[in-house]
Amino acid sequence: MARIIRMAGISTASIALVLTTSNSAQADVDEMAACSTTGAWGQVVADWWGADDRIDFKMTYGDTLADGHHMRVRLVTTDVNGTRKNWSWHSDTDGANNGNKTYSSYAINDSGIFGWGIQVGRFEGNSMLNSCTDWV
Question: 48 to each of 3, 44, 70, 84, 101, how far by Cα in Å?
C-alpha cells in the first residue's frame, strides 16, 4: 500500500511540474499585428502576453505606391475600460519601395494595456486618404 501511495505522489508531482512549466514557455512568444492598405503597409511585434501597463514593441513599415503621397504608422492600445489610445504617428516620406523603416520603443499607460495593434495610413499632407487597423 505504501508503494502505491508513493507512486501516486510521484505522478502528481510530475503532472504539477508539467503544468507549471508550460505557462512560462508560452509567455516568451512574440505577437504581431499587421495590415496593408493602398500605398502602405506596417507591422508591430511585441513580447506581450497579458494585461500590463507597459509594452515594448518594434514596428516595421513602408510606402508601397509611387503616387506622391506618404504613409504613417502608429501603435494603438486599449486600457482596462476598453478606451482606445492612439500613439504618435511615424512617417515614411522617402518614396515608394525605398526600403522599410523600423521604429522600436515602448508605451506606458497607467490604466493598463489590455489590447494593442497597429494603424497604417496613406496621407496627403495631414489628411488621411485611407487606412487599416489590426489588433492582437
Answer: 45, 12, 30, 18, 22
For 53-82, give one letter per residue: b (16+ CB within 10 A) or e: eebebebbbbbbeeeebbbbbbbbbbbeee
CA angle (15 as vertex; 10, 20 as ends), nearest 5: 125
Rounded Cα distance between 118 and 77, Å, is: 9
Say how far apart CA 113 and CA 82 lie, in whole Å.
9
Is 0.85 topped by the overall pTM?
no
Question: Which pLDDT belongs to residue 51?
Answer: 82
Positions of the chain with pLDDT lower than 70, given as ranges: 1-28
Q: Is 10 left (phi over 0), alpha (psi -120 to 50) or beta?
A: alpha
